[in-house]
Each structure stands twice: as structure tokens, then as C-alpha cells.
Amino acid sequence: MNTQFPVPLPGAKARTLMWAHEHEVEPAALNQLRNIAALPWVEGVRVMPDVHLGKGATVGSVIAMRDAVSPNAVGVDIGCGMIGVRTSLTADDLPDDLRPIRSRIERAIPVGFNAHSEPVDLRRLPAITGSGQAEVLKGAEPFWQRFGALHGKVSDVEARARRQLGTLGGGNHFIELCLDTTGQVWLQLHSGSRNIGKTLAEQHVAVAKSLDHNRGLADPDLAVFLAGTAQMDAYLSDLWWAQEYAARSRAVMMTLVVDAVRRSFPDREVAFDEAVNVHHNYVAVEHIDGAELIVTRKGAIRAGAGDVGLIPGSMGTGSYVVRGLGNPESYWSASHGAGRRMSRGAAKRTFTLDDLAAQTAGVECRKDAGVLDEIPGAYKDLDSVIAAQSDLVEVVERLSTILCVKG
């Protein structure tokens, strides 16, 4: 059990507990955390071991507010998260050359700024017995009928949002084949709410910044909405929709990945376990210390007792499947990944393509300049991040990456 964490953040007005030592966190991120803790609506802040600088709020932070919510405490990729499925395949079933499987996945799922040429017809998706996808894929039309109730100027992007459902995006989003410690094959992917989530978030941030009660904040990007106002009701309504969009999009993609894997093994019946589908950029209303508070997790998963979560590293470094221990000190939370230790620009200046090839040796993946900023060396050590939160989660499986698709 962890005995060195949490530690309090000196100089923070609201109680701020960290699962990282102060000297391990960049000064700008520490200042950001203190700015967050100084907001009059904040009851407390919890800081995960993958913490790093974000826009407004720090990535790797869990913020509990009373009667208020800050859009940037969630971020622009509303509902971003992970989904994972264990298969009946083992390492012995895999071909020596994984490139054909990667190519099949890349043909099935658009990456980067690309979208499907037509919206995915959910009625024609292949059935995946035991994958846990059915419930998420149901109710597509009622879900899309709610699009008209979204706020701001989004009516002209509905067609794009429909075509981007079930697409990966870029940056740190990925699709992977992994092996667990027994040699079992897992499928997992990381994605969010694409352009529609970003559009909704940015519109609401602009509205929040214009409100009188946010004037004079130490950081304008921490502007909040207050409970009982039309602005907060509008934001939360749009946010719930975008979180559902992100979960549905992951479910569609996983269905397409499963189909691609099945087609890669035409001579055998491949089975799939129930899917684990979790957000790590989201809002929830939770009871903390006897009060109903609005909790934002930006780069953090819920780790209530028994909650199963996925904590990935970077391309090539694998992931952990974990089970929450239900620690109330962390607001029942854990990290969402390894966390960056340097910016994208710094990574491009620091590393070469030869470094990328060396650090992703043995992994079937892109090794070109377009993904150099995602090199494993730009991220914190995943095993150390997991070790720092042994009082928050227990390890179920350690996954090693053997194939990675990135935008």
C-alpha cells in the first residue's frame, strides 16, 4: 500500500492533495493548481500522478465545486476516454507480420481530421456477441433527435458530427492490439467527442468568460457557470450529449475493430469479452463529505470500489487494466494515463526518427515525422505512475502493445 501519498500542495487555498511530489510537477502546472484552488466555488482539488499543464485547468486534476462548473476543468475533448475488450486470441494465433491487420483497421476507421464518407449505419454493424456494445449502440435516432436542442451555432456541423462518429481523431488517440501477461490478445482504443465536442466546449467557454462574476479571475480560462442560471443549464445539457457522443463513438469504433480482427482470422471463431468503456474528461454530480458537489475529471478516471478502468501509456509502452479501491481521499479517482513530461514542440526538438524507431521497436505502427511528438520518451514512465497510486487502484492486467494505429 502507498505510504508516501497523498501530499498537500503548499499555498493552495482549497484543500489540494497530490499523488505526486511537488518537485516532480512543472512550476506552471503548480501555479495552475493554486489558481484553481483559489476559486471561491472550489471545495477541493485532487491531483493525479500523471499531472501536467493544461488550458485553464491542469490535466490530471479532479475538482469538486459547489454550485458551479468550469468548462475548462473538463476540457474541449468532452467525454474523451478508453474502451477495451479481451479476445479469445492468443499470441500463438497471431501472424509474424501484423501489418495486414493494421492496414485493415486503418481502412475501417478514419484517423486524423478524416471522417466516414457516409455516417455509419448502426443497423448494419456486425453483431458482437459478448462484447458489451449492444446497449451503447441502441437508440441512435433518439440520440440524434436531441442534436437540435444543442446550444449555439452547431446546426451547420450536424452532418460532419454524424460522419465523425466512429472515427479516431489525432494527437494522443490510438487503436491498439495488446498482449496481457498470459499472452491473451486485447483490443483497446482512446478517443473523444471529435469536432462537435470541441465546438460546444469553446462556445460555452466564450459565454462563461463574458459573465460578470468571472471578471478579475487570476486566469480567465477558469471562468465558471453558476447553478440556477440558464448558462449553466445550457452547458450541462450540451455536455451530457457530448459525453454520450464520445461513448457511442468508441463503441462504434470498437465494433469496426472487432470486425476487422475477425476478418483477419477467417478460419476460426474469435470470441470477445464484455467491453470496458470509461470517460476520463467528464462531469459527474457526486456526494462528497455529505454535500452534493459537481466533480470534473480532466485526465482522470473514476476509481470507486470495484470500478474497472484502463490506464494507457504512450505508443509502444502498453497499458494497465485496473480496479478501483474506492479511496475517498482522491474523490474516488485515479490517473487516466502516463501523462506528458514535455510538450509536443519540445518532443519534436528533442527526438529524431531514429529515436522513434528505437522506442517503438517490436510494435507494428507508424514511425514517421507525423507521430514524432507522440514518442514514448515524451511521456512519463507508466509503471512509476501506477506505483504512485497503489492506494487508488489495484492492477488487474499489464498489457504490452504489439500494434498501434494513430492519426
What is the compact description of this entry?
Helix content is 27%, strand content 25%.
General description of the model:
This protein is an alpha+beta fold and 407 residues long. The chain is 27% helix and 25% strand. It is built from ten helices and 17 strands. The chain has helices at 27-37, 99-108, 134-137, 140-145, 158-164, 194-209, 230-264, 344-350, 353-359, 382-387, and strands at 7-8, 15-18, 42-52, 59-65, 68-69, 81-90, 174-179, 184-191, 225-226, 276-279, 281-288, 291-298, 300-302, 308-312, 319-324, 333-335, 393-406. Strands 10-6-8-7-17-15-14 form a seven-stranded antiparallel sheet. It has a six-stranded mixed sheet with strand order 1-2-3-4-12-11, with helices on one face. A two-stranded antiparallel sheet has the order 5-9. A hairpin with a 6-residue loop joins β3 (42-52) and β4 (59-65). α6 (194-209) packs antiparallel against α7 (230-264). The radius of gyration is 21 Å and the shape is globular. The mean pLDDT is 94.
List the topology elements.
Elements: E1 7-8, E2 15-18, H1 27-37, E3 42-52, E4 59-65, E5 68-69, E6 81-90, H2 99-108, H3 134-137, H4 140-145, H5 158-164, E7 174-179, E8 184-191, H6 194-209, E9 225-226, H7 230-264, E10 276-279, E11 281-288, E12 291-298, E13 300-302, E14 308-312, E15 319-324, E16 333-335, H8 344-350, H9 353-359, H10 382-387, E17 393-406
Parallel strand pairs: 2-3
Antiparallel strand pairs: 1-2, 3-4, 4-12, 5-9, 6-8, 6-10, 7-8, 7-17, 11-12, 13-16, 14-15, 15-17
